[in-house]
């Protein structure tokens, strides 16, 4: 029916007009924001997807950075930042969590993280703590061994130089795998011959 088509056309024109008006309003707000010297960022009222996309476009044309925040469609809003105050990842994370951004608190957190990193580095440079018991076991057993016994025993004890040491020459097997296998096979054949 022609009247339905006419009504549709009228609605589309109205919609288009509203978008144009909205864009003009956003352009005015954004230019006010740019001229406001003490304002590094501005948060806009929640708006629908189309309005947000118009605002993002206006911001981009004006040379600003813009982000949308908020979980559900009804409460999603746009924040516009001047380029020199572009938000850090930390700042963006705070907005995504729905928190207010507090530069002083963030700076304090950053300082604490830095301090922790420095302490960790210092500990790494110091190296691991020397192994060994935190206390002197001799104190624990003094009533059994006395205070001189252990020292006297330590003086008379001689270390067995060979203990636990295998000369490198004994360790290294210079035979090839084939030679070693042939030797094993030969020993096996010899045993079998003896068994028979």
UniProtKB/TrEMBL annotation:
A molecular function (GO) term: nucleic acid binding
Pfam family, one: R3H
Name listed for the protein in its UniProt record: SPAG7 protein
Gene name, Swiss-Prot/TrEMBL: Spag7
Entries under CDD domains matching the protein: R3H_sperm-antigen
Annotated Basic and acidic residues bias: 99-114
Residue ranges of every copy of the R3H domain listed in the record: 20-83
Renumbered residue ranges of the record's region Disordered: 99-140
């Amino acid at each position: 029916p022609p009247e339905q088509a006419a009504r549709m056309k009228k609605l589309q024109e109205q919609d288009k007009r509203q978008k144009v008006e909205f864009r003009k309003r956003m352009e005015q707000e954004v230019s006010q924001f740019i001229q406001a010297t003490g304002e590094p960022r501005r948060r806009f009222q929640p708006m629908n997807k189309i309005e947000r996309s118009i605002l993002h476009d206006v911001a981009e044309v004006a040379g600003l950075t813009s982000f949308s925040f908020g979980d559900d469609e009804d409460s999603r809003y746009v924040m516009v930042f001047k380029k020199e105050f572009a938000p850090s990842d930390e700042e963006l994370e705070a907005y995504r969590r729905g928190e207010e951004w507090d530069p002083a608190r963030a700076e304090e957190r950053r300082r604490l993280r830095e301090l922790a990193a420095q302490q960790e580095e210092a500990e790494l440079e110091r190296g691991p703590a020397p192994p060994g018991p935190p206390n002197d076991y001799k104190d624990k057993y003094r009533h059994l061994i006395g205070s001189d016994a252990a020292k006297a025993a330590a003086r008379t004890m001689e270390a067995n130089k060979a203990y636990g040491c295998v000369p490198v020459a004994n360790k290294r097997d210079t035979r090839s795998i084939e030679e070693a296998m042939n030797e094993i096979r030969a020993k096996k054949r010899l045993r079998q011959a003896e068994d028979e």
